[in-house]
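Dear H.,

Thanks for agreeing to be a second pair of eyes. The structure we're designing against is below in token form, covering all 265 positions.
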């Protein structure tokens, strides 16, 4: 018990030191798990998902997703562009996710709401932004201050298994949907993702109909569960509209520089 208390105090002290870390938008973050440990957790989670979910045999869907993802990834800083793995799953659920370790999973059901390359870029830009902004690290680190310290120690060492690791990373297999990050992280992923898609030459204006399609997919009862903690409705549209002028300017610059994605739909 005394050792556990010392470890918990050490974590709290580390959090105070690491709290000076900032996200790409300048938001203060608590992060004290190493990039290598987070990558290991992401790789283990992705391997588990692939072991439990059938990969798509639809060559066209796989090509489309890889094309859009490739354009998004090429907008990242050079050191973040390498080593991405993209897998499309044979499942009709409306779902996509990205994990530390540079893993992207997309379910075929996403095409029910992403009806052109620009709308798919909205989804993938958002998910990639979760990784580049290190939201999973932030989630693991902040959870460690409020949860059982020994459990989080195991997570930091990459040995926390199954649903516990999935939950910390933001992925849940029980219901087959992405478990959302908090509202600040989701809003930040919207903002960063909009920049990624614009820099890739995709139309950021298509982000609004994409999220409207998401809501309609639920019969008007609200967004899909994997977006349930994200600001929705009027707030989301207000935020998107406020960011569109800057995003459109980024797109114009990108297109003039030769960024003209053509992923076939």
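And this is the sequence the design step returned. I haven't edited it by hand at all.
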């Amino acid at each position: 018990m005394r050792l556990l208390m010392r470890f918990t105090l050490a974590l709290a002290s580390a959090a105070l030191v690491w709290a000076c870390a900032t996200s790409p938008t300048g938001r203060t973050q608590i992060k004290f798990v190493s990039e290598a440990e987070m990558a290991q957790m992401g790789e283990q989670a992705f391997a588990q998902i692939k072991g439990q979910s059938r990969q798509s045999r639809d060559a066209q869907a796989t090509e489309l997703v890889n094309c859009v993802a490739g354009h998004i990834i090429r907008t990242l800083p050079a050191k973040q562009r390498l080593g991405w793995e993209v897998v499309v799953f044979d499942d009709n659920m409306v779902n996509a996710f990205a994990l530390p370790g540079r893993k992207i999973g997309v379910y075929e059901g996403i095409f029910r709401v992403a009806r052109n390359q620009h709308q798919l870029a909205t989804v993938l830009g958002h998910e990639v932004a979760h990784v580049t902004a290190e939201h999973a690290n932030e989630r693991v680190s902040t959870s460690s201050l409020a949860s059982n310290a020994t459990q989080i120690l195991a997570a930091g060492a990459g040995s926390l298994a199954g649903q516990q690791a999935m939950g910390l990373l933001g992925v849940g297999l029980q219901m087959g949907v992405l478990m959302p990050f908090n509202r600040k992280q989701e809003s930040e992923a919207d903002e960063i993702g909009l920049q990624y898609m614009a820099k890739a030459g995709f139309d950021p204006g298509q982000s609004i109909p994409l999220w409207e399609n998401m809501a309609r997919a639920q019969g008007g009862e609200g967004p899909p569960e994997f977006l349930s903690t994200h600001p929705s409705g009027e707030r989301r549209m207000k935020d998107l509209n406020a960011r569109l002028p800057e995003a459109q300017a980024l797109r114009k610059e990108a297109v003039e520089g030769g960024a003209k994605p053509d992923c076939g739909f």
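Two observations from my side: The longest strand covers residues 85-89. Residues 22-28+36-256 form one domain.

Warmly,
E.
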